[in-house]
Every structure is written in C-alpha cells, then in structure tokens.
C-alpha cells in the first residue's frame, strides 16, 4: 500500500467528502447510473481506496442511506423547549423536523429513490437509525397533551412524524409533477413557507379536532422486525457486486 493511501486511511474528512459526494450522485443519477469512477474523481480518493473503506458500490450506497437518514434528524436542542403548553411543544417539534428536512433535499431524494427502486430493500435491513429523539419527544408531549385534555387520544408519535415527513418528502420529490398537474412549484419560497404552515396546522388540527374516540391507539402501527431481519449484513450474501 502506498504512503498516500495510508494517509487517506486516517483522513476522516476524506471519508466524509466521499460520502457527501456519493449522496449527491446517488440522489441525482440513481444507483444504477452512478459510477465509482466519477465519485473517485470528484472526491480525490482512488476507486481502490473507496473499495477498501466501503466494500463495494452497495456498501457505499448503504453508508449513504444511513448518513441521509441521520441528516434529516433534527438536533436534540431544536426539539426541546421549556414550555408547559403541549401545543407549543408540538409546534416546536414540527418546526424542527420540517426545517431540518428542508435543509437536506439530496437526502430526501436519495431515501425516496431507495423506496421506489428497492436497491437494498430496507424492510430486510437493520434500522438505519435505531431510535430517534423526535419520537421520544413527541411521545412525551402527546402524553402531556392527552392527560391535560388538550389532545384527543388515538394518535401516536409515529402518526405525527409520518404526516410531517410526507409533506417534506412530497415538496422535493413531487415538484415536477405538481408543476405539471396544478402549476404549483412546491419548492418556491412562498410554497416552501406554505407547506411549513400546512405541516404545523395539519398536526395541530389532527391533535385537537373534536372527533369521537375511535378506540384505536393510533392510526399507524409500528411493525417490529424479528432478530433475523435486524442484521444488515445478510444483504451482501445475495448481492452481486456492481463495480
């Protein structure tokens, strides 16, 4: 191994740069059309060293998916507030989630690409993020709001996160379709702000609507993967190396 390769082994910034560039390439070009040669040229890291660090193209792709999922998680300090009013606390969480996703459109495109094309089939891969501060904070706020009578029962943290993320993902991934169908550019400054307000108002309206208790604990039910599906390593047994 050459001395310059050894330097790259210890250069965390170089690895971060490769992942950052790869996220952009996978999000823009898709998995099949993205080439490691292009990522190597853009990042300055040799293709051989990319293989050394990430295994193969799908190994790099999985690393990018994980990083993309991490990027759309708001920092803990943006989620918490000192308010004792559940509505204000939930509003802060909605703001934090939406605005964080707004800052990382390439991550949303990459994650949407995987949902559509199932390169790795995420239902059989270990959870990209084993738990989020978002769900924990929402659980706390929902409990406070329901105990005080401010929020109706039958709504979970997963329900709220799904609603917020659906609007954030649709803003980026449905832009061209919405322009074509209804002449609305979802990524314009005005509509970006409008979707932000829609996210906040939709969540608060859902929580405070005068609707009879359905008897359900939530709209969505979290499916827990069994132990065999928790390991992402098994995916490599059936994958053919692309490059």
From TrEMBL:
Occurrences of domain HTH tetR-type (ranges): 12-72
GO MF entry, a single one: DNA binding
UniProt protein name: Transcriptional regulator, TetR family
PROSITE patterns reported in the protein's UniProt record: HTH_TETR_2
Keywords, in A-Z order: DNA-binding
Chloroplast listed as a keyword: no
GO biological process, one term: regulation of DNA-templated transcription
DNA-binding residues: 35-54
Keyword DNA-binding: yes
InterPro entries: Homeodomain-like_sf (IPR009057), HTH-type_TetR-like_transc_reg (IPR050109), HTH_TetR (IPR001647), NicS_C (IPR041474), Tet_transcr_reg_TetR-rel_C_sf (IPR036271)
Gene3D superfamilies: Tetracycline Repressor, domain 2
Organism: Corynebacterium pollutisoli
């Amino acid at each position: 191994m050459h001395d310059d390769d050894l330097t790259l082994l210890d250069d965390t910034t170089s690895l971060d740069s490769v992942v950052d560039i790869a996220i952009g390439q996978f999000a823009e070009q898709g998995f099949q059309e993205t080439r490691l040669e292009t990522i190597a040229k853009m990042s300055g890291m040799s293709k051989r060293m990319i293989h050394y660090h990430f295994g193969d193209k799908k190994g790099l792709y999985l690393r990018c998916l994980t990083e993309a999922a991490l990027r759309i998680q708001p920092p803990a300090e943006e989620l918490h507030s000192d308010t004792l009013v559940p509505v204000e606390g939930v509003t802060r969480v909605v703001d934090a989630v939406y605005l964080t996703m707004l800052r990382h459109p390439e991550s949303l495109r990459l994650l949407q690409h995987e949902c559509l094309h199932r390169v790795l089939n995420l239902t059989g891969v270990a959870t990209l993020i084993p738990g989020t501060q978002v769900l924990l904070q929402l659980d706390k706020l929902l409990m406070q709001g329901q105990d005080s009578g401010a929020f109706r029962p039958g709504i979970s943290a997963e329900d709220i996160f799904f609603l917020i993320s659906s609007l954030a993902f649709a803003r980026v991934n449905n832009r061209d379709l919405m322009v074509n169908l209804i002449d609305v550019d979802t990524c314009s400054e005005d509509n970006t702000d409008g979707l932000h307000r829609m996210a906040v108002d939709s969540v608060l309206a859902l929580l405070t609507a005068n609707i009879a208790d359905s008897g359900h604990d939530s709209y969505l039910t979290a499916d827990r993967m069994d132990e065999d599906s928790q390991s992402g390593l098994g995916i490599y047994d059936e994958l053919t190396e692309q490059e």
